[in-house]
């Protein structure tokens, strides 16, 4: 039977050969390179025509730059403009431009570039964010180093959006094939885009600013949170840009190879009420529900206790942030009293949520807590985004829902009665308009007033603010702790 | 004659599949335009986008347009990116073919010796053990095998990547390293199934007269089996291998997600999530067509190889 033994041996050899192909340790190709794991992949590289967070996350501040930029604390700071002045009527912005800046295709950055880029938003962009530029009356190139933007009416919100993708500067000859060939002024340029897998950036040799510490940055995409975690654990990547399952943090905390960074985001997890429809059009009912939910306990269950209780639609990175999380302390007795006052002791409410982990976990807690004050909650999970967007967001077919509202300064949605939460308060709408046209000081005062008003009206129950959780190999520095803008800024990366 | 009839059945099946796929997409809840535009979309922009996608037209028109495009090699444009789908399908299919091909190699390398062993020793303990293990292995889903392999070789031992894809022309070594675990998780499960077929095929051959003749002429049992038996046992085994391709392709869809491989499976799952319906339709049709083509080839080759079947049909 020697031949059969040989066959068995052959099988073993074959099995071992499969393993020995990778007998050396798998790690990053070189010390000059860093690999960062993300959870949402860009479909292409053109954020002027394709919506979604993934493209600006990868390219804004890294490949494309704007006149202004949001720093990690949410402040508007210079980028391609060195300074700017605002006219007394707050309609004219004069930008002094940084000298010696060129695009990666060799074109110089001038005031004409600014005019071209801003005008182009209205003519060539197709995503709905382009509406941010409708407030612009016209753009002038006063001289090559001086661009002037004149608005139709004053708007603080406009300068803020100039720090987002809408304010990105493009080279007039570099917009032919944005989906595959980005041309920018940033510290990095595109090396290779492997659709659905990774995006490789390399240092821009002609960059006007300090040379980046890593010559090559690989942005690697993982749909599955477990696959993302495994990639870091097995040395496949060096950083997890944002942990999607906080329960998994423990396995990194106990491993001395890694450090965890916790910062903030602009993603408010909101228990939204359908303010336009009975019974939640009654303020007492909304307040009762808000008193009846223990948000601290909910945060512990739904997001492992990481995150911030905020109490209104304002994250700490906005200048008008105030902690309003204690206005409605957990008080089931008061909740029952308010429901009795409203004549609603036997409420049944439809909680229609997206099928996302934080929403599902939060919904369970809310159902059991509201049961204690006599409210029956029926939970319906909807496929996100497709079905949730159609039925809840567009169709307004819900009593309550739970969604993380990630957009910056999305408190303005409370000024729009047609928005899915159906909140209509002329005072809030007027305050928001005044805040946009006024001086920065007026803006802060008015926005504080808006936040307090929607809190007092219990327009929604702001469950918590999602934390920004980064896990990185020890020795990597300069990661952006807070996710406050659209970009994942790679320019400050370094080594300890 | 047989070839003609088989080809007819192939085309009919493809046509029915296309109607089923299209109808299924049409009743799926969710508006592709709303998903593409996100929460800032105005009703005007939504209507405009629906028109641009062509999804405001009657369903039969949309179907005819889609099928007409497929006949001329035009797979349409993605709702999400606006890019032509055809070139992307080719890229993704190539990745999936590498994975399925490597899994088949793994399955054959493992199953042929083990199945032969199980047959030759079917009355002994070692044969029974192999048979039992193959029964067990066939019951394990490929993605579960993948999770276990990642836990052992990537997370604990750190000798292989836990996922990701490097094109072979970019870095052949990284390509092979990345292929090992997904090919094993897909291939070993297939190997378990195949082992049982190899075993029964070899058992059949062992009972044949010509093998007894060979042994009477002085060959040892193993020599007789290898020189005269295995080639005859190969016919049914190759047939099964072809038919298993459907299972392999479906397994690949899931394994690609576990291992973050940008093949057809990942393309399909991403497109379903973003309601990129035309991409879903195209990918499903490519998968259906691939399975049907292989089945057709197996059927036709089988009748060519074995003339008796030609008469039987």
From TrEMBL, chain B:
Instruction: Answer yes or no on keyword Transmembrane helix.
Output: yes
Q: Where is this protein chiefly located?
A: membrane
The record's annotation in InterPro entries points to: BPD_transp_1_N, MetI-like, MetI-like_sf
> Where, subcellularly, is it found?
Cell membrane
Task: Note the CDD domains from the entry.
Answer: TM_PBP2
**Where are the membrane-spanning stretches?**
7-28, 97-120, 132-159, 179-198, 233-255, 283-305
In the UniProt record, the signal sequence range is none
- Please provide, in alphabetical order, the Gene Ontology terms of the cellular component aspect for this entry: plasma membrane
State the membrane topology. Multi-pass membrane protein
Q: In Gene Ontology terms, what is a biological process of this protein?
A: transmembrane transport
Q: Which UniProt keywords apply?
A: Cell membrane, Membrane, Transmembrane, Transmembrane helix, Transport
Question: Superkingdom of this entry's organism?
Answer: Bacteria
Q: Which residues form the ABC transmembrane type-1 domain?
A: 93-298
Report the sequence similarity comment from the record. Answer: Belongs to the binding-protein-dependent transport system permease family.
Instruction: Name it.
Output: Peptide/nickel transport system permease protein
**What is the organism of origin for this protein?**
Kutzneria kofuensis
